[in-house]
Task: structure prediction
Amino acid sequence: MTNEAEWIRLARAGDQAAFGRLVGAYQTRVYNLAYRMLGNASEAEEAAQETFLRVYTHLHSYDPQRPFRSWLLSIASHYCIDRLRRRRIVWLPLDEEIAVPDRLVSDRPNPEAVTIQREREEQIQRLLAALSPTDRAAITLRYWYDCSYEEIAEMLNLTASAVKSRLHRARRGLAKMMQGETANAL
Amino acid sequence: MHCEQASQMMSARLDDCLDSTEIDLLEDHLAACSGCQAEWRRLQALDRLLASTPMLRAPLRVRVQVMARLNRREQTRRAIIGSTALALGTVALALLALAPVFLGLLDATGITPALISGGPATIVQLLTFLRTIWRALLVLIELVLIERSAVPLAFLGLCGLVIALALNGLWVGAVRRLRTAR
Result:
């Protein structure tokens, strides 16, 4: 039995320390998904916490035959989609608008690289913000989690062909938007 | 091949979902269509941008905060279970302790047959029943304190109370075990 399977088994029996290990193992994946979906750090943090609380509450209904990662990301995606749909006006703290996602997996201490990274992050979040919540989730799961059409379909309650067509439509829109931004910058 | 079809195939190609025949078809179309070539370049640029952006690392406090919220929630849950179970147990045991007194008193006042035959079928009847019980309790206190004729009945009630307290102790132990279980 792998560490993960053992932690899940113990967590289901009420062992909070084992659940803490699961949180530690998956917090970056859940936080990154929430950040890509919601677009700001404080909401992403709140969404990550809420996702883990929901996971703990519903752990008894988790089917061990299914990959835990898919189940977890599915809960996180649905939570973020619901949150985006409920959102009418987004009030961001002033520093959030220029927040540097400085906790990158590939740390780059070079200031120039940090600036480039910051600009790239801002561009990506602007692009993602133009998508519908479900398309945003599909793009995020495809690029940052390397999920197949089938996996994304299962996580978002869609068919594989719907995922394929959503990805196509989203990419087309984003590519045009990106080209427009580049043209404006010149 | 239509441009729309080619566009869909471009997206599928970025996902490595085309076989060699489909790739050839797409390449042939791209070689002949400048509009699709431009779109393909745009899609590739987007793909490179997204694929080269790393995952964001979660702040360390996420785990700490999740565990703190989980602990708070667990404490609240246990407090609710504990207080509800204790309240229910105490009420049940109090009724148990007073049952011999009530039964004896009902016999003494001669209203048992009426209760058995009628029963509290409606809310009005239930309220009447409770009022009767309350009056009977007052009569009992009067009998014990003034006329001393109901001392055996009071002794019976005292025994019931002692048994109820003992059972209550067991109940508290059971509730404690329930609160520590998830």
